[in-house]
Amino acid sequence: MAQYFSNNIKLLRKRKGRTQDEVALALGMFRSTLSGYENEVAKPSIEVLSSFSDYYNVVIDTLIKVDLSTIAESQLSQMERGYDVFFKGNKLRVLASTVGPDNEENIELVPVKAKAGYTAGYSDPEYIKVLPTFRLPFLSKDKKYRSFQIQGDSMLPIPDGSFVTAEYVQNWYHIKSGKPYIILTLDDGIVFKVVENLIEKQGVLRLISLNSQYQPYEIAMDQVREVWSFVHYISSEMPQANRPREDVLIETIEELRREVKAIQTRLDFN
Questions:
Q1: Which of 8, 42, 87, 230 is deepest in the core (most CB within 10 A)?
Q2: pLDDT tens readout for residues 217-256
Q3: 239 closest CA partner among 152, 156, 153
Q4: 121-163: per-residue pLDDT in tens?
Q5: 3 vs 133 pLDDT, higher one
Q6: Mean of the per-residue pLDDT values for the chain?
Q7: Could you read off the pLDDT of 9-50 as tens digits, one per residue?
């Protein structure tokens, strides 16, 4: 912990262009005390950690558990603006949202044609404001929902083009393994997958498709921007019947033929 914390507060201070004297004055401590923290001579208390967290706008968990020197510049910039890629504790993620004339939350709709724009503008209130909105009376007014149009066949039997409505997940440590989620990622944009939560052990999420033709893969948490928990989907198509694929049928027939031939061989030998 000490190594990451010391290096991180030194890196963040230099990114702000501040001297040790300036930071120490802002935090109400002696320069020698700050130097001790930056050089691993002194161990910070919870109060000190909280002060650094507030000053640099980075959550405590990130300060002590993440080597910020390995984070891309774009991600560091987002983190410093308050959109931390990790979350635990009393810091809340900032979510751009819209409300109706009655001051109640809307459900914003992200169609396929808006996916690229959403990846870039998900935290921009002006962008979120132009998305179509609607309401569903059977959903809780106390929770935040958004609807995403999915693409492709990786989550069959949920059809291509379906609109998946999901609930905003504030704390990523609460992601439940085996449940479906909408994940907004830095490189892949919006993906809809069943998730295995490996944050505590490996710092990643394992993403699994319902369609077995697609292999599971892992994504590091510094690539994740938003997480939404599946609630339901709306589609104009009927789900496809769960019939065996042609190649599976062929393999099954071949296996039966081999078994019959083996039995025949044993009979002939006897």
A1: 8
A2: 999 988 899 999 999 999 988 766 655 556 656 676 677 7
A3: 156
A4: 888 888 999 999 999 999 988 889 999 999 999 999 999 999 9
A5: 133
A6: 85
A7: 999 999 999 999 999 999 999 999 999 999 999 889 988 998
SS3 letters across the chain: CHHHHHHHHHHHHHHHCCCHHHHHHHHCCCHHHHHHHHCCCCCCCHHHHHHHHHHHCCCHHHHHHCCHHHCCHHHHHHHHCCCCCCCCCCCCCCCCCCECCCCCECEEEECHHHHHHHHHHCCCHHHHHCCCEECCCCCCCCCCEEEEECCCCCCCCCCCCCEEEEEECCCHHHCCCCEEEEEEECCCEEEEEEEEEEHHHHCEEEEECCCCCCCCEEEEHHHEEEEEEEEEEECCCCCCCCCCCHHHHHHHHHHHHHHHHHHHHHHHHC
pTM, two decimal places: 0.59
Homologous superfamily in CATH for domain 2-80: lambda repressor-like DNA-binding domains (1.10.260.40)
Same fold, 2-80 and 107-234: no
Whole-number Å distance between alpha carbons of 106 and 86: 26
Looking at CATH, the fold of the domain delimited by 107-234 is given as Umud Fragment, subunit A (2.10.109)
Residue with tokens 């295995």: 196
